[in-house]
Amino acid sequence: MKRNNVTVALAAAMALATISAPAAAGRLPDRAAQAPGLPVISVQGCGWYVILGCSTRHADAVALRDELGGPYAGGGAGLNVVHTDDYPNFRDGYFCVADGPYGSSGEAGSIAWTEAVPDAYVKDAC
C-alpha cells in the first residue's frame, strides 16, 4: 500500500511539473519568474493580439487599460498589460495594453476595438 501512495505522489508531481513548465508549447519564459518584483503579468503566450496602446511606463499602460474597461474588457481574452521584451515580434522596451492572444489574425481583427481606439492594430506575438 505504501508503494502505491509513493507512485501516485510521484506521478502527480511529474504531471504538475509538466503543466507548469514555462517552456510548454506555445509559451515563452515567464519574465516575472526571471525578475522577481517586476510589476508585469506572466506572458500569455504566442498568438495574435489587438494592440491598443503602448508606453515606456508601466503605470501609463495600466491607466490606459483601466480607462478602456479594465482586465475583463475586450473580446473574451481580456485586456492585459504586457512587456514587449517577452515577445519576439514586438519591439523591446514597451508596456502595451493588449487584448489576446487569439488564434488567428482574423479572429483578433474581428474584435471591435477600432471604435474605441482608432489606432488599434493586430499583431502576431511570435
TL;DR of this structure?
Keywords: Signal. With 126 residues, the chain is of the alpha+beta class.
Helices and strands: which structural class?
alpha+beta
What spatial order of strands do you see in the largest sheet?
A: 2-3-1-4
Q: What's the Cα radius of gyration?
A: 18 Å
What series of H and E elements makes up the topology?
HHEHEEHE
Helix fraction, binned, reads 25-40%
- Overall 3D form: globular
Number of helices: 4
Low-confidence runs (pLDDT<50, min 5 residues)? 1-42
Proportion of residues in β-strands: 15-25%
Q: What count of structural domains?
A: 1
Largest sheet: 4 strands, antiparallel
Gap between N and C termini, in Å? 48 Å
Tally the beta strands: 4
Overall pLDDT, averaged?
Answer: 73
What's the layout of helices and strands?
Blueprint: H1 2-20, H2 31-34, E1 48-55, H3 58-67, E2 79-83, E3 95-102, H4 105-109, E4 121-124
Antiparallel strand pairs: 1-3, 1-4, 2-3
How would you portray this structure in words?
This protein is α+β, with helices and mostly antiparallel strands. It has one domain (28-124). The chain contains 4 helices and 4 strands. It is globular and about 30 Å long. Residues 1-25 form the signal peptide. It comes from Nitratireductor mangrovi. Keywords: Signal.
